[in-house]
Amino acid sequence: MKKIFGLVFLFCVLALSGRQNKVMARPRIQGSKNFGIFSDGEFKIPAHNFSAGKKIYVHLIISGSGEEEKVIRLLDAGKNEIDRVSPNQEGNNPYTYTATFIAPAKDGTYYIDAKIKDGEGFTFAGQQNISVSSQAESRVSVSEENSSPKITTFFSKVIEFLRKFLFGLTNKEG
Questions:
Q1: CA-based radius of gyration for the chain
Q2: What pLDDT does 93 receive?
Q3: Residue 110 pairs with which residues in a beta bridge?
Q4: Per residue in 50-87, pLDDT tens?
């Protein structure tokens, strides 16, 4: 009975360790995959922290044509409009909208506000925050190499303990 309990426990630890590694190793990225803020014009590097004066790239993919209204705005912390652009539009359902802003000179929290509306009842309204600092841009990145060793080390010790425990039971029973 102890052997079965030990095997079930070992299985649960292994199952949880795999799931925890995946959950804890991935960085949390704000916003949906269809509405993103990036630090590069190829829209490959998601970002929400910018240095003053740097370009902010906005990318939006939705099914609305924007016939009635299409606007992307940069707002300050009080939600006052600083800049407004009519985004570039490409494609045909889904439509891709892109816009570029320059990060304000003043440090603080700002918002990118997007609104796309067509004449057929579709409306997209979304807002994401960004931080601007006059200091050099500080990046925080999380990768599996940086975060999983702590988890792996812990679970490796648990697994090794269980193996010794189970092996010890096998020798005592046999």
A1: 25
A2: 84
A3: 130
A4: 999 999 999 999 988 899 999 999 999 999 999 999 99
111: closest CA among 127, 132, 134, 87? 127
How many beta carbons lie within 10 A of that of residue 17, not counting itself?
A: 18
Is the CATH code 1.20.1630.10 the one for domain 35-133? no
Nearest-angstrom CA–CA distance, 6 and 9: 5
Q: For the segment 109-127, what is each residue's pLDDT rounded down to a tens digit? A: 999 999 999 888 888 999 9
Distance CA 174, CA 3 (A): 12
Other beta carbons less than 10 A from residue 101's beta carbon: 22
Residue 88 to residue 71: CA distance in whole angstroms? 10
Question: Treating both helix axes as pointing N-terminal to C-terminal, what angle do 144-173 and 2-25 enclose, rounded to 10 degrees?
Answer: 180
**CA 42/CA 71 separation, integer angstroms:** 21
User: pLDDT tens for residues 136-167?
Assistant: 444 443 333 333 334 445 556 666 766 676 66
Which residue intervals of the chain are DSSP H helices?
2-25, 144-173
Local structure of residue 41 (DSSP, 8 states): T
